[in-house]
Each structure stands twice: as C-alpha cells, then as structure tokens.
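Researcher: Structure prediction, please.
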Amino acid sequence: MNLRPPANRVDPRARRWWSAQAWVSLAGPMLLVALTMFVLSLLFFPSALVWLGPLLLVVLVVPGVLYALVMPSWRYRVHAWELGSKAVYAASGWFWQKHRVTPLSRVQTVDTTQGPIQRAFGLATVVVTTASTHGDVEIAGLAAEAAEDLARRIGEAAEVVPGDAT
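Model: Predicted structure follows.
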C-alpha cells in the first residue's frame, strides 16, 4: 500500500541548513583530506600524482561535492508532515526514505530541538516520542515558531484522543 505524501512541506530554508550540514560534516572534510593528500604528494611524492590525483578526484572530491549539491534538494522533496485528527504523518530521508504514521493515542512526549546550525537558519525539529520500538518521529526543518506551534498542537491533540486498549 502506498501512502499519499503528507500535506505540509518543511520550511524552504531547510535546503540551506542541509547544505551547510553537508559541507561541515561530510563534503568539507572530504575535500580537506583530498587537498591535504594532494599537497603532501606534491611535496614528497610528486610521481604518485599520476595515479593519486585521479583517485582523490573519484573517491573524495566528486562524491563530496555531489553530496553537498544534490542531497539538500532531494531531501526537501521528501521531507513533509501532516497532523490529522488521529495521527501524525511524517516523511523523511533522501536516499533511504521513511514514512511514518503515528497514532496520537501512542504519543508520550513532544519536544522541539535545535542544533547550532539549525538555530542559525531559524529552524527547529519536532520530536514525537511514542511507545514504539521503531523510535521517535522527527519532523526536521520547520521554522522555529512553526515547530513550537506544531509541538503544542500535537500535545493538545494527543490529550483528547483516547489511549490504546492494547
């Protein structure tokens, strides 16, 4: 069974946040390693540049740059959320995509979180904790004010939905 996409997109600034995350956590370090290896080879083993240059390009430079350029837009197309009368529906991921429908009757806590990069972009993540062994439901990339409002609305909705008898 295929679910329709959730109705609400994350904030467009999420693309810039994911891009900054990519450069800080993966693409930037990959390029730094490639540059360091290139310079060290140039200084101490210039004859190795014949094979090391293309290897660095294929293994570190191209994948790092592609990741930083492609992932944010791809992720933005996938990330979405919806709060219904009985459930929270969230879609996330980019390469490995996850769609979760969480009954409001199973909600235990609702929090908002912000990392330093996310805070710089005025964004936040809503974390819905349930009794499920599959973990929390995260709705990342919301405007900070919208995240606070959504967390409040999920909490209020969960209070009025009867709990599971199971």
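Model: The chain has four helices and seven strands.
Researcher: Thanks, that helps.
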